Amino acid sequence: MENKDCYIQVSHVKSALAKMISFELSLKSLFREHELNLRENTGRRNMLLSQAQEAFFAKELSNSGYDITCSGKTGEPDIVLNCIGRELECKITSSKRSSWPLQCDYSTLKKKGSTDFLYVLSDDSFSQFAVLFFNSLTVDDFHPPAPGSRQKSRMRKSEAMKKCVVLHGSVRNKTNRYISKYEKMLDCEVQRSTQRINELSDRFLTSTTENKRFKIDAMINNETARHKSKKDSIDKKIQYWKNNNCHYEIELDCVRHVER
């Protein structure tokens, strides 16, 4: 993760999220007055909140002295920072799973060449969030759109996360976690097997009969074979994660000191 060219600050995020939470609660109340449930369909709710995301973050940037354009018109950038010549696409999404298929409009991004992205991720209750800023993403940071996807393309997190600044919540490299886990398992297995063979070897040396030595020798061979099988299995898992693209886990967090 890098902080290069990140013009959005944590203070902007906290303030904008607080406004979005308040706006969502107002919508929830309005829906309830008409016997409707705003949170029944998070995709539909996020569509209603997308303009608020753009407007509230644009306001925060404007308050920090940036010359901002935020028209909200179809086909135009969500936010333009005129003073530094940057465009920012704003996305909001919710998920009930740990997987977050962050998307873009592939054809639009291909025409632009590159642009910045700000993803707001929320839970169903709109109380916990992650906010991720991506600097200058290109189509190489996304999978080609699948047939019938209407040019919606999933992010290649193994590539795009190199350009990510986490402004709220947290992102962990799942690959490194699993490599560390299996390397510790391997260390424990080596120590266990070494200790066991040393014990059997001592018993072999102090045995007084050929029959006992024969049995202990068989036990040593069995332990050696067992250890090799276990070690090979763990080694395969380590190599699997080392040879694969990085996988990431995104964790949401609440917004502190916000009245709900």
Brief overview:
By secondary structure, the protein is of the alpha+beta class. The protein has two domains: 10-168, DNA mismatch repair MutH/Restriction endonuclease, type II (ECO RV Endonuclease, Chain A), CATH 3.40.600; 176-243. The chain has six helices and eleven strands.
Detailed description of the structure:
With 260 residues, the chain is of the alpha+beta class. The longest helix has 34 residues, at 210-243. A hairpin with a 4-residue loop joins strand 2 and strand 3 (86-94). Strands 1, 2, 3, 5, 6, 8 and 11 form a 7-stranded mixed beta sheet that branches. Strands 4-7 form a two-stranded antiparallel ribbon. A two-stranded antiparallel sheet has the order 9-10. It contains 6 helices and 11 strands. The model has no long low-confidence stretch (mean pLDDT 90). It folds into 2 domains: 10-168, ECO RV Endonuclease, Chain A (3-Layer(aba) Sandwich); 176-243.
Question: How is the secondary structure organized here?
Answer:
Layout: H1 10-33, H2 42-63, E1 68-69, E2 79-81, E3 86-94, E4 103-105, H3 106-112, E5 115-122, E6 128-137, E7 152-154, H4 157-160, E8 164-168, E9 170-173, H5 174-206, H6 210-243, E10 248-251, E11 253-254
Parallel strand pairs: 3-5
Antiparallel strand pairs: 1-2, 2-3, 4-7, 5-6, 6-8, 6-11, 9-10
Helix pairs in contact: 1-2, 5-6
